[in-house]
Amino acid sequence: MKTYEVPQEIKDGNTLEEKLELLKQIGRSFSVFRVDCGSCNGCEIEIFAAISPMWDPERFGFKLVANPRHADILLCTGPVTRQMYYPLLRAYEAAPDPKIVVALGACGATGGIFYDAYNVLSGIDKIIPVDAYIPGCPPHPASIIYGLTTALGVMEQKLKKVSFEEEGELPSLVKDSVLGNIIFERDLLVKAKKLMSYVFGRKLFDKYIEALLKSGDVKNTQATKKSITEAMTIEEDPRYAECMGILHNEVYAQYVTCDEEDLISLHRVEWDKR
Amino acid sequence: MLKLLDMSKKYGQTTHKYPFEPYILADNFRGKPSYNFDWCIGCAACGIACPSNAITIQLNDDKSKLIWEFDCGRCIFCGRCDEVCPTDAIKLSNEFELAVNFDKTALIQRGELDTQYCSQCNKAFSTKRLVNYSYECLSKANIGEKRLLEAKSYLNICQTCKENATGLNLTSGEEMVIE
């Protein structure tokens, strides 16, 4: 598909000097027109969250307008579906020169998760020249405000291209196992992630290992049972407490031979003293 | 009108001071994935897990380097790379100020890792760091010294060569016994 070529008169009216001149002239009042080019509505919701009194961008003079002829900034969201291709061009041509185009969201910046779908053009910059990109899926209201302020030169851009080419010495990434077998840690982490997902699972793993090391002798089933039960009673979140018991019964018992009485009772009344 | 003023006095100001003051994020905020190149072993788990292909892993033209590349513009902040990373080299950070002007390449992070060549067919099949990491894991997994010595040789052989050698050993009657 042949995409749009920017006409010469629009090109002439949109040079960098013209844009910098515009920034000087309009002072502290900017009109923003929002173009939805087939977005999932997540970015729209965040834009409206960003213009709510909670964030109040009218402090810097941002206003949403309903007509591209009033706009200084075009805020484009979405991966540009085939249906929204011409409406986007009409909004672009209708906006007075010089105009600033901001691509909002992962879809607007590069096409996002839809980048190789058959019915999208993947990204605003494939069609019209874009001045600022605000990634995020959807971007946080603070990111939107930061993006618009960077587009206007109020704040500095923070990201830079990072490239690591020389490889250094690889540090020792595998910690020593508490039981002398790394497979115990592996199984423990897998079970912890299964029980509490990866963010909290890692915290659960750390808590369990800490409690296990507190017992002094990790292979002594009596001592470990005592220290894990202690950790369960002082734990504030009952989810962690119960999952620690499950880990002990199901994973630890596989690696150290435990009797029936070495297992921890998961009945809440017995360990929840509050 | 006075009632309104009284109400506003009672509830105070709720507008965030950002960008003039830093904004305090909530716990577990999903910001830009931060990449720690020193810990990356090039196992490509993040590239497979990434639903939007923001992370791509490719060999370069002369196959001497494995190029890990992350395009923040395409990232949807799902955290699956964080979930699968075995060495915590990629982690979701608190960074939310990601906007860039004009040049989209500022959103890219890349790292180049040395590749390991197969000791049999001399083809690039993995990274040196991944081989070292695998050996380190095996050495802490409570296995015998003889198997560890064997591991040192077979970790440097690519998948196809391993399959061929196994087939050859089976058909020629030289089966290996794992102790």
Notable features of this structure?
heterodimer, A: alpha/beta, five-stranded parallel sheet, 10 helices, 45% helix, B: 179 residues, alpha+beta, Alpha-Beta Plaits, two-stranded antiparallel sheet, 6 helices, 19% strand
* Strands side by side in the biggest sheet of chain A: 2-1-3-4-5
Q: What would the CATH topology of the largest domain in chain A be?
A: Rossmann fold
H-E string of chain B? HEHEEHEEEEHHH
**Mean pLDDT across every amino acid position of chain B:** 88
Structural class of chain B: alpha+beta
Strand content of chain B: 15-25%
Under CATH at level 1, the class of chain B stands as Alpha Beta
Shape of chain A: elongated
The global form of chain B is: elongated
CATH architecture of chain B: 2-Layer Sandwich
| Uncertain ranges of chain B | none
Radius of gyration of chain B: 25 Å
Strand order of the largest sheet of chain B: 2-3-6-7
Question: Percent helix among the residues of chain A?
Answer: 40-55%
Q: Could you say how many structural domains of chain B there are in total?
A: 1
Q: How is the main sheet of chain B built?
A: 4 strands, antiparallel
Give the beta-strand count of chain B.
Answer: 7
